[in-house]
Design goal:
The chain is an alpha/beta fold. It contains 9 helices and 7 strands, in the order βαββααβααβαβαααβ. The chain has a 7-stranded parallel β-sheet, with helices on both faces. Helix 1 links the parallel strand 1 and strand 2. The longest helix is centred in the middle third of the chain and has 21 residues. It starts with a strand and ends in a 12-residue tail after the last strand.
Length: about 250
C-alpha cells in the first residue's frame, strides 16, 4: 500500500501542483483545504479543514485529526506539506488584531499542531515535513508585516524542530519568490507591463512555476535528501542575491 502525503492549501496553485506531483508518483494524497480542489486526482482523498478554526477550537481539532488519521488508513505519513497560508497585505496602520491572529494561526501554529498530531505516523514512515515558507521570511516590502513575520517564524520553527526531532523526522522549508499561481496572475490582471517587470527583476528572467515548488518538495521527501534537515531552501530565481540600487 502506498504511503500517504498530506498537503494543506491543496486548492491553490502550488497546492494543486503538489497533489499532482505526488499522485503521479504513486503516493496516496490527502488534500486538505477549506474549499475543494477542482479538479482532484480520483485516487486522492479530500478533507475539508478550516486551519484557523483548527488552531482555536480543540474539539474541532480533535475531530480533524481523527479524519486525517482515517484518511491515512495506517499507511504511514511519508510527508506532511504545510502549504496553506494567509497573506494579508495592508499598511501597518490598518492591520487588525484579527488579521494577525488568522495569519499566525494558519501560517505558523497550524504547521506546528499538525506536525505534533501526526508525529507518530511520520516517524512510522520515516517521513518528512515540508514547510512552504517564502522569500518574505528574509526579504520583504511594505504592507507585508503580518505575512513576513509569520514566514520568518515558520523558518525558525523549521530549524528548531529539525534539531529537536533529530533523525526521527526530517523538517525543511522551501522559500519561493514570485510563482505563477492563479492568485498572483489575478493580482496583475490588466497590468502585464508590471508583471513582466517583476519577472525581469529575477536574474533567471522569469517567475517561478508551481510545479517547480512541487518538484523540490518531492526531492526533499525522497531518500536522496536523507541528509537534508533544518534547511531553508531558496527557490527564487536569484532575486534574493540581487542588489536593487536605482543610482
Amino acid at each position: 500500500m502506498s504511503k500517504a502525503v498530506i498537503v494543506t492549501g491543496a486548492s491553490g496553485g502550488i497546492g494543486r501542483a503538489l497533489c499532482d506531483v505526488f499522485a503521479d508518483a504513486g503516493y496516496g494524497v490527502v488534500a486538505v483545504d477549506i474549499r475543494h480542489p477542482d479538479p482532484l486526482d480520483s485516487a486522492a482523498t479530500y478533507i475539508e479543514l478550516d486551519l484557523n478554526r483548527y488552531c482555536c477550537d480543540p474539539p474541532y481539532r480533535n475531530t480533524a485529526n481523527t479524519h486525517l488519521r482515517d484518511a491515512v488508513g495506517g499507511r504511514g505519513v511519508a510527508a506532511l506539506i504545510n502549504n496553506a497560508a494567509v497573506q494579508i497585505v495592508k499598511p501597518m496602520e490598518m492591520l487588525t488584531t484579527e488579521d494577525w491572529i488568522s495569519t499566525l494561526n494558519v501560517n505558523l501554529l497550524a504547521p506546528f499542531l499538525l506536525t505534533q498530531a501526526l508525529l507518530k505516523e511520520l516517524e512510522a514512515a520515516a517521513g518528512a515535513v515540508i514547510n512552504i515558507s517564502s522569500i518574505h521570511a528574509t526579504q520583504s516590502k511594505p504592507e507585508f508585516a503580518a505575512y513576513a513575520t509569520s514566514k520568518a517564524a515558520l523558518n525558525g520553527l523549521t530549524r528548531n524542530l529539525a534539531v529537536e526531532l533529530g533523525g526521527r523526522v526530517r523538517i525543511n522549508a522551501i522559500c519561493p519568490a514570485a510563482v505563477t499561481t492563479p492568485m498572483l496572475l489575478e493580482g496583475f490582471a490588466g497590468r502585464e507591463v508590471a508583471l513582466d517587470r517583476l519577472a525581469q527583476m529575477h536574474p533567471a528572467g522569469r517567475i517561478g512555476e508551481p510545479r517547480e515548488v512541487a518538484a523540490l518538495a518531492f526531492f526533499l521527501v525522497s531518500d536522496a535528501a536523507g541528509f537534508i534537515t533544518g534547511a531553508e531552501i531558496a527557490l527564487d530565481g536569484g532575486i534574493r542575491a540581487r542588489l536593487y540600487d536605482p543610482v
